[in-house]
Amino acid sequence: MNALRKGVQLLGLPVLLIALWWVATVNSDNFFWPPLSEIAGTFRETWFTGRFTADVLPSVGRLLAGYGLALVLGVGLGVAIGSLPVLRAVLEPVLEFFRAIPPPVLVPVLMLFAGIGTTMKILVIVSGCVWPILLNTVEGVRAVDEVLRDTARCYRLGRRARLLRLVLPGASPQICAGARQGLSVGIILMVISEMFAAGNGLGFTVVQFQRTFAVPQMWTGIILLGLIGVLLSLIFRVAEARLLSWRNE
Amino acid sequence: MRRTPPPWALGGLGLAGLVLVLEATPRVGLVDRRYLPPFSAMVEALAGQAGTAEFWRSLLETLRGWALGLGIAMVAGVVLGLVIGGVPVARTATTSTIEFLRPIPSVALIPLAVLLFGTDLRSTLLIVVYATFWQVLVQVLYGVRDVDPVARETARSYRFRPLTQVRTVLWPTALPYVLTGFRLGAAVALILEITGELVIGSPGLGRQIAEAQNSGAVPAMYALVIVVGLIGVAVNAAARATERRALRWHPSIRREIPA
């Protein structure tokens, strides 16, 4: 009974909304809002007859490569900057400025240096994702408990042990917060960099559909992008829960 | 202990260093001048831009789009957040939907927006509102969840009318969260406003950047990127100042002021 109720709570509204969409468009001859049945019908044929490996996987691959690099860079630099107060004071305004630049404007800038290939797209993703991760890591490292820090010093923990046992775990909640922001920026940049200039990829394909007025296909692209966003955030949440499981009070 | 210089001096040093690097690397030939012009060339281009009416019009259009999008998202987010958060049934029923809709990247809607509105202002507005709305809504929902049950029950026992309950119990508790949503939303709205202009081509600084890039006016492009960055800094600072001002009474802010 309880499970049933939970199920209704979880799925009730989404099912209702989809049903509404279905019913509202069932006889639609509006060009922009094709019937949902038609969209669902073209989904398989649009994405799973070659496009999945030709467009979706390269996009997601670039996203993961860029995001991974940004994580390494952001956490690495963040720990260094966070542990050195003078360095932090010197770099703070510069970092604030770079963070405030809306990441998509980096696309035209980086196109100058790296052309329009895969390198450019990964670079764009890195240079957008890195700021929230970096700044949150700096904050996290700075906020590590003073007493714990002194204790570690008293016990003469070595550099390595201090980093792995004290600084990184202490800063990990903040790092995760930054990594989550970075991920959503990364998805945006994945799409934008492909809309600008590309020969393949999700963003490219969706814009192509729009330009050729393949409206149902365009809708499937929007839905697929949405699903990817939801899936990645789910994976992130699972990873975060595992990483921070020790923190449960 | 050695005295360290004050933070503003160190920060100024950092900025000066950045300017120096930007000036020097293209001059000594570390990077191609065509790709990264020296800082002085960027400043010159900026001065040139500031003399044109087009620059100021674009700046105004960007700010207007940002403010409009943020405003709509704030009103919608706060109203819906209070309603959904205040009614337990609504909250449990909508949780899964919100969790599903929120991570959908707003840029996925760009093709739809272009199809519906063309390169009009409304295309960008749609994307800005969509992205900003979730930031605000989620914060308001957190805020409403944070309401002290005793305060809520007390208000109910005294038979406060629903609107009075909202004004005296719900709103003051949720306000810090609303302002956090405002701060996050302000930054997100600016990102999506510029993105929309850049990709869709609706009027504003983003479109100017795309045009400068297409016509090979590299220093002007960098100048505009710097302007956009400065707007970002100003937006962040203004949002933080608003937060402090509106929450002067709140313990979290009052604690920061040394006794």
The chain pair with the largest interface is: A-B, 56 and 59 residues
Q: What pattern of helices and strands is seen along the backbone of chain A?
A: HHHHHHHHHH
Q: Helix fraction of chain B?
A: over 70%
The end-to-end span of chain A amounts to 31 Å
The portion of residues forming beta strands of chain A comes to: under 5%
Estimate what percentage of residues of chain B fall within beta strands. Answer: under 5%
What does the average pLDDT of chain B come to? 86
Which CATH class of chain A is shown? Mainly Alpha
Task: Supply the helix-strand structural class of chain B.
Answer: mainly alpha
Going by CATH, the homologous superfamily of chain B would be MetI-like
Provide a count of the helices of chain B: 11
* Radius of gyration of chain A, in angstroms, nearest whole number: 23 Å
Number of helices of chain A: 10
Task: Please describe the biggest sheet of chain B, giving its number of strands, its sense, and whether it closes into a barrel.
Answer: none
Supply database-style keywords:
heterodimer; A: MetI-like fold; 10 helices; 82% helix; 0% strand; B: 259 residues; mainly alpha; MetI-like fold
Q: What's the gist of this structure?
A:
The complex is a heterodimer of chains A (249) and B (259). Chain A is mainly alpha-helical and 249 residues long.
Describe this entry's structure for a reader.
The complex is a heterodimer of chains A (249) and B (259). With 249 residues, chain A is mainly α. Helix content of chain A is 82%, strand content 0%. In chain A, α3 (51-83) packs parallel to α6, α6 packs antiparallel against α8 (159-196) and α8 runs antiparallel to α10 (215-243). With 259 residues, chain B is mostly helical. Chain B has one domain: MetI-like fold (Orthogonal Bundle), CATH 1.10.3720. Chain B is 79% helix and 0% strand. Chain B contains 11 helices and no strands. In chain B, α3 runs parallel beside α6, α3 (53-86) packs antiparallel against α8 (162-199) and α8 runs parallel beside α9 (205-214). At the A-B interface, α1, α4, α5, α8 and α9 of A face α1, α4, α5, α8 and α9 of B.
